[in-house]
Amino acid sequence: MKKRTIPFMFIQFFLVALLSKSFAATPDLDIKSEVRKIILFQKSYSDLIWETDFDRKEIDWVMTVTIPGENKSATFYWSHGRMLPPEELPNKEKYSPLLYKYEKNVRDPADYTEDEKQRLKEFSSSENRLNGPGTPMFFFDFIYDSYTKATIEPHIKRIKFLGKSTKVHERLVNVLKDVENSIIMTSLYDPAVQSFLKNIESADAFYWREIAGTNRKSFHSLGIAIDILPLKLSGKEIFWGWAQRHNPQGWMLTPLSNRWSPPQNVISIFEANGFIWGGKWAIWDNMHFEYHPELINYNFNF
């Protein structure tokens, strides 16, 4: 199948093809929305070279991604935002879309409905965490070369971040420098950020491991997630899994006032630089920041 480079501003012309009779089998597909998501996803990784086409046989967008200067390419099908290699298309139900809802504001657990509480219990169950749909790592493994510990380690760099030594993927070195500079500048006039900086015990990023309770790789294994642990929690909770140990039925209802949290200005600075904060997840991880510019763009700019 011949592929061609399609600039972002021209990709919308393919709506004509998408609205053709080829889509009779998928009448419920929101074509315009899918195209906007593809444009957004590609812009989130604009340093890569994208070649985009439409596969009428699979009724799906297909993209070849190249890392400039590395002579390294890979092909992915959009698959409603899963970015799957061709051989994984038959298994697409095993994976969750890479674009999902990331809250602009932290939900107050006091507002959860009974149905939401029950869904959270089911979602956080050992069975679901082990066997439920997981994040498709194929695109990330390609751009970060994180197929194995051996392949990624040459890309891991040791840096100082907020005064602490840590190891991150080389793609994040400059991004985190921008985050650090903004936080330090903000601390000059924000007492809460000053206190936050004084209370940092560690800022740990790269660590090759699986997500607790699953058989799936953590984003710490890619060096694109960082945990900022404070010296003192002052009696507050910081991670749902630790809260669950002593409150197995009601951990999700832990009041926000009882959860340790970075200052809002720190969270906003991370988000402005493409990071999501784990404190906004229903299964909350308040020490955790993770680099996903595609999610920031999707939820704040879509």
The tally of beta strands, per DSSP, is: 9
Number of helices: 11
Lateral arrangement of strands in the main beta sheet:
6-7-9-8
Q: List the secondary-structure elements in sequence, H or E.
A: HHEEEHHHHEEHHEEHHEEH
% residues in beta strands: 15-25%
Biggest sheet statistics: 4 strands, antiparallel
| Outline type | globular
Helix content range of the residues, please?
A: 25-40%
Q: Average pLDDT value?
A: 89
**How far apart lie the N and C ends?**
31 Å
Indicate the low-confidence ranges by residue numbers.
1-13, 15-25
The secondary-structure class comes to alpha+beta
Q: Radius of gyration, Cα only, in angstroms?
A: 21 Å
Describe this protein's structure.
The protein has 302 residues and is of the alpha+beta class. It has helices at residues 15-18, 31-44, 114-123, 126-131, 138-144, 149-152, 173-187, 191-198, 240-246, 264-272, 293-301, and strands at residues 49-55, 60-67, 72-77, 156-161, 164-169, 200-204, 225-230, 275-277, 288-291. The strands form three sheets. It has a four-stranded antiparallel β-sheet. A hairpin with a 4-residue loop joins strand 1 and strand 2. Helix 7 runs antiparallel to helix 10. The longest helix has 15 residues, at 173-187. The protein is globular. Mean pLDDT is 89; it is low at 1-13 and 15-25.
Briefly characterize the structure.
Helix content is 31%, strand content 17%.
